[in-house]
Amino acid sequence: MLEIRNLHARVEGNEILKGINLRVNPGEIHAIMGPNGSGKSTLAGVLAGKDLYEVTEGEVLYRGRNLLEMDPDVRACEGVFMAFQYPVEIPGVSNTYFLKAALNAIRKYRGENEYDAVDFLSLVKDKMKLVEMDPSFLNRPVNDGFSGGEKKRNEILQMAVLDPVLSILDETDSGLDIDALRIVANGVNALHNEENAAIVVTHYQRLLNYIIPDFVHVLVDGRIAKSGDKELAFQLEEQGYDWAKDLHQPAPEAV
Amino acid sequence: MSTDSRELEKLTGGDYKYGFVTDIEADTVPKGLSEDVIRMISAKKREPQWLLDWRLKAYSRWLKMTEPHWAFAHYPPIDYQDISYYSAPKTTDGPKSLDEVDPELLATYEKLGIPLKEQELLAGVAVDAVFDSVSVATTFKGKLNDLGIIFCSFSEAVQEHPELVRKYLGSVVPINDNFYAALNSAVFTDGSFVFIPKGVRCPMELSTYFRINSLGTGQFERTLIVADERASVSYLEGCTAPMRDENQLHAAVVELIALDDAQIKYSTVQNWYPGDKEGKGGIYNFVTKRGKCAGVNSKISWTQVETGSAITWKYPSCILQGDNSVGEFYSVAVTNNRQQADTGTKMIHIGKNTRSTIVSKGISAGQGQNTYRGLVKIMKNADGARNYSQCDSMLMGDRCGAHTFPYIENDNDTGQIEHEATTSRIGEDQIFYCNQRGINAEDAVNMIVNGFCKEVFRELPMEFAVEAQKLLGISLEGSVG
Ligand SMILES: Nc1ncnc2c1ncn2[C@@H]1O[C@H](COP(=O)(O)OP(=O)(O)OP(=O)(O)O)[C@@H](O)[C@H]1O
Ligand SMILES: [Mg+2]
Questions:
Q1: What is the per-residue pLDDT across A88-143, written as a single tens digit (0 to 9) for each?
Q2: To the nearest whole angstrom, how far is the Cα of B464 from the nearest Cα of chain A?
Q3: Where does residue B419 rank: exposed (0-12), middle (13-18), buried (19+ CB within 10 A)?
Q4: Predicted ipTM of the assembly
Q5: Which residues pair with B410 in a beta bridge?
Q6: Which of B437, B441, B450 shows the shortest C-beta gap to A102?
Q7: How many distinct structural domains can be found in chain B?
Q8: Which fold has domain A2-89+164-245?
Q9: Cβ of A88 and B429 within 8 Å?
């Protein structure tokens, strides 16, 4: 479904991603861990099409097509969803209005009927139950005045409504209390099936107790230093990233 | 300039969609201004002597005044002798029904999305359509007549209700109030007149669509609205203008008077031609709008959505004279390309326990300049007066400007004034967030901007709010992809 080959990307002239290789198949969940500043959000942003990032080398194939050539809204319509590490506030625009506009834009792109207000409302109320969100959030402006945890939950609600093919969750667990963590994880699991895939960026092994990854990758200094199964997350938790960093250090004679 | 702001400029570089000139023969007075021209206008309109005298007095005052230049706007000097001060469609005998209206004119309204017939049938809106300077269509007169409501062109009011006109004309905006008001008083050609009698609530929105048409013709509208005791009315003013190449002066005067327990709500959507991307050919919109809450417990509310004109100079104000009277000002002003807007309000608290609310939303795009200029004045005897002001500015791109000048004069210790102001740049983050959810950039900008303006839009009557949102979209967006 997703094939990243030798991906290099820059921000403001600094190289952040230094050759990422990653393959994600339908039905898989990949976890990406790694120290602050290692490039996890950069990778997510490049995949979603944020134009702050300049891709200098490499390619990304999504369902056989060149992802990097698509505009960000087209990527979304093609089923790429990113849950933001810092969800954005849009004052004055209600959550319902926003979500309905998003859903209908995607449906229109796919040549499907647009939802009317009634159908949409019943869909969204259904999905809200999944993330145990109070319906009062529907009339509030998008993320405006939401607590940190509420914003994260709202991201998962959007994911549930938009039903993406590839979800990239950037630290969705950060800032969640233990109950919210479980709720969000249950939501993600409920949406997961054999046709879709998820890339879950996290700092904490505990999320992976709820969302069981097929693969865990450690991103260090713009490269994937190590990949493994969920046991790798435990090792990281115990030994810290320094251990993984060392793994990544090239042997002296190779320099 | 970053790629993001270039992207934004592309988005906001929409062309003016209402640019077309209607081909109707106009009866135009030669260019230039003199006592003779004023006499000619007055004679053409068969005005009584007192009104001619009033005009001439205004003219003599105007001659002694100088053009104000304190507004945050730059433009070449205006040649007042190069303007034609009177233009009327040739069909002089007013039409009795829409069937008698020039089909070309009706077609123009169709293009603007304002089908009179549909409005008459569906919206229940009485329309007093001002084409150039003379009213050509008035509807729902009968219904209003039954309630004793007067809603007609200003010229008609002068003929039919001279005592009312004479009593209130100039009572809120005196002839020497300012340069443009004096000019308007001398040469105004037509406009609207509304009188709501005691205890009557006007059952429908009263609406006037203005339109500038003849080349080189100044537009000097005069509007006078009086709500007698316990009366209430909601008045809508909307306008668009055809594409043209020459700067045009538009100096209207609007006076509102609310007596005891009366309420007037005045809503405007202003979309005069803003000029091309270099600012060439746009309308100069120098308007004086003022309401007087003359009676106790009266209320005047201004709501405006200003998207057009090359230069806007406009301060719809309230004189809160009656005790417990309320003044409100809700404004959205958009400047794009080379547009300049200097707008705001004055709230003058004279009576006790008077209250005022100001909500101003300025949006600047392209190289647009947007200034909020407001005065809240609490006079010595205005015990318990209160004001709340909120002025928010949004910048799109990095070549535009926003400026805020909130003046406060408080001469009463019990007065309370609260002021909040914010300036934000339309977030590339916000646009990306929308994109990431499948919403394209154009729709995203539209959504974000409409969200920003929500507090103002919700003050507009429903159909008008929809139109305003559309206009905002047209002014800010354009061809994407
Ligand atoms: N706009 C920017 N300008 C300059 N540098 C940037 C910008 N955005 C990101 N960076 C830099 O890129 C590097 C990678 O950032 P990124 O956000 O991808 O890290 P991360 O792995 O997600 O970290 P965290 O765990 O803290 O979320 C950091 O050094 C960061 O400072
Ligand atoms: Mg990050």
A1: 999 999 999 999 999 999 999 999 999 988 899 999 999 999 888 998 999 999 99
A2: 19
A3: middle
A4: 0.94
A5: B378
A6: B437
A7: 1
A8: Rossmann fold (3.40.50)
A9: yes
